[in-house]
């Protein structure tokens, strides 16, 4: 198949391109040229900005187009304008942040905890533009909202769409460096103090290559047409359990201590308020049952690879 990946040079994109190319598909990655792609041989590159698409992009007629960078209603609308009637179908990367439970974690949606695990049919956020005041995410968040992206794409019938809701993705080249702070503390101390509510909080994660594998499956299996899939590890340990697992991987012999939230010093508290009584545990049984999704790396090996990368980053600093 002819497969076009929009924005495929960041975190998960190169793994998706590699997986598709290894299956023998004709893969082109469209990107701005600002990131070292690390793309495998045989994958073509097309340069440009999807917010101001060149005429060459409008002439492409892929069997499948994978949109990695749909962040706003404008992005979704522009995507449909370009590929409606030109692409056979689309895979669009979304996030578990669309769920109402995530809005409750960030204290912008109200109500008791939603039942977990969260399925693809669980309620979505009632709030909008959650990150509008954030300046630390590296993108323009004024109109960033994956809920609106999904609604725009699912409200039309001209371009068949599959939605993949990613978890918290970790691994080498993670732009968020999700585990860095804990690993830094392990290097400096024999004790990590964590607020009791956060210590017991559960949040579904996924290793970068495993998440990319789910995207490859969705792109190559027509059963995915019109479906929404949660993606992530089958289990969601508590934050304290995750830190302890990182400790085992690194050989750290310290301990994790759960303390009252008020005992956490100011510099270690998040500047953004959270309510950790709302867990972000997602149900991934649909993609496992329908597309036979399985991890190719897995949690423990993924954590080890992430730790090795973080150590290399620290050595270069």
Q: Your description of this structure?
A:
- The chain has helices at 13-22, 55-59, 73-83, 100-105, 146-154, 180-188, 196-199, 208-220, 239-250, 285-291, 299-316, and strands at 2-6, 26-31, 44-47, 64-67, 89-95, 161-166, 168-170, 191-195, 205-207, 228-230, 255-259.
- The chain is α/β, with parallel strands linked by helices.
- Strands 3-2-1-4-5-6-10 form a seven-stranded parallel sheet, sandwiched between helices. It has a two-stranded parallel ribbon with strand order 7-9. The chain has a two-stranded parallel ribbon with strand order 8-11.
- α1 (13-22) links the parallel β1 and β2 (26-31).
How does the SSE layout of this entry go?
Elements: E1 2-6, H1 13-22, E2 26-31, E3 44-47, H2 55-59, E4 64-67, H3 73-83, E5 89-95, H4 100-105, H5 146-154, E6 161-166, E7 168-170, H6 180-188, E8 191-195, H7 196-199, E9 205-207, H8 208-220, E10 228-230, H9 239-250, E11 255-259, H10 285-291, H11 299-316
Parallel strand pairs: 1-2, 1-4, 2-3, 4-5, 5-6, 6-10, 7-9, 8-11
Derived from helix and strand composition plus strand pairing, the structural class reads alpha/beta
Number of domains: 1
Highest CATH level, the class: Alpha Beta
The whole-number mean of residue pLDDT values reads 92
> Which spans have pLDDT < 50 for at least 5 consecutive residues?
none
Strands side by side in the biggest sheet = 3-2-1-4-5-6-10
Overall body shape: globular
Order of helices and strands: EHEEHEHEHHEEHEHEHEHEHH
Largest sheet: 7 strands, parallel
Give me the CATH fold name.
Rossmann fold
User: What is the CATH superfamily classification?
Assistant: NAD(P)-binding Rossmann-like Domain
Instruction: Give the proportion of residues in helices.
Output: 25-40%
DSSP strand content: 15-25%
